[in-house]
Amino acid sequence: MQQIGSDSKRYVLVLSDGAKAEDLTAVQQAIDCSFTHSADLGSGFRAKQVYDSGKGVYFQYLNTAVVENIDPARLEAAVRSDSPIIYFEPERLFRTVGPLEQLAAIRASLAELQRQIAELEETLSKPDEDLISTDPRPSTWGLNAMGLAQTPLTGRGISLAVLDTGIFRNHPDFRNLQINGKSFVDGEEWDGDLNGHGTHCAGTICGDKSDQNGRYYSVARGVSLFVGQVLDRMGNGLTSSLIDGIDWALSQGCRIISLSLGAEVRPGDRPSLLFERIGQRALEKNCLIVAAAGNESRRNERPPRPVNSPADAQSIMAVAALNRRLSIADFSNAGINDQTGGGVDVAAPGVDIYSAYSQLAPGGGLYRSLDGTSMAVPHVVGLAALYMEQFPDLTAEDIWQKLVDTAQSLDRQEAIDVGAGLARMI
Predict the structure, then answer these.
(1) Catalytic residue list contains 197
(2) From edge to edge, which strands make up the β-sheet containing 236-238?
(3) Annotated catalytic residue: which of 258, 374, 379, 417?
(4) How much is the pTM?
(5) Which residue has the higher pLDDT, 43 or 388?
């Protein structure tokens, strides 16, 4: 994962807290650029068309704006002046936090491949029932580990958004699910999912019983789902698409936003002020953003890598991945930048996670088992929805605290890796 860098033609602006839509006049004068309001965008009028016309887009729910082809020196001057612009940064490239990064590392390291084969053989020798559930319904190991196999809660009445590669809408396990969607990727439709990653994440949140093996694999089957495609068929997306999707999710009244994506950061990097503000704006609107810690670590070869952006923002919940032994996954990033933000909040099942998949993705099929902190995030998102159903008077910040307070402490696991521990139903 990489930052596009200073040669990017597109920049994201953060406006001062007191700034309102009418203050755009001052912004326009400061940088000589006119703006289109995000409320005016629709399926026939997209943000890219605005940028291509030389205008910027103002995202009302996030109090941010995106501009293109503006001299960064002019933006720096605007930040130093009394304009409403307080910060800007070039676009970043975000990617799915799933199995692709692990595949590249495995190919590069025979020793790692042999270790993972040995671990997989050990895993396959243990049935899901080593994490005992007394529920007669067969459930995946992740649901059993989190104490979710027997709960009567379904997340009914809770609206949440999955911002990812879209969803395979025709999957039989989504047939009874209310889904609203929008694509923020040019030339691709949200309801096809040519990658499969978004379908897998959505399935863990609100799929159904597998037609393949009869197991239940989803956490909160009763939610109202909003799907925003912010990553393309290759699993790549830019900041402008991501904040467009977040702004849209907030405009739809979503209580939770699921982000199984990230951009790599370096040891010692401070979190982006942009995402710190975005996470805070969401909390103010009673919405919890949950994001993946990232998969760049190879713990048997080197020290772990820091939590990805945007999960490293203090106002966004960061989720690490656990294996079946409830130990930190080898690939899961750690809170090594926690003095500047960037700590792990909780951990969840993220290895050998069985869920729905897209028939339109490479390899096809309706189901697949994947590894990644991407797979851990939807477990926590689903649990948050159950808590919101159970405790309707709690705010998004209260739900965050409840997820931390009810997490199961894990023996021999460090807080820098797993935060408060395994997210689990009380």
Answers:
(1) yes
(2) 236-238, 93-96, 261-262
(3) 374
(4) 0.90
(5) 388
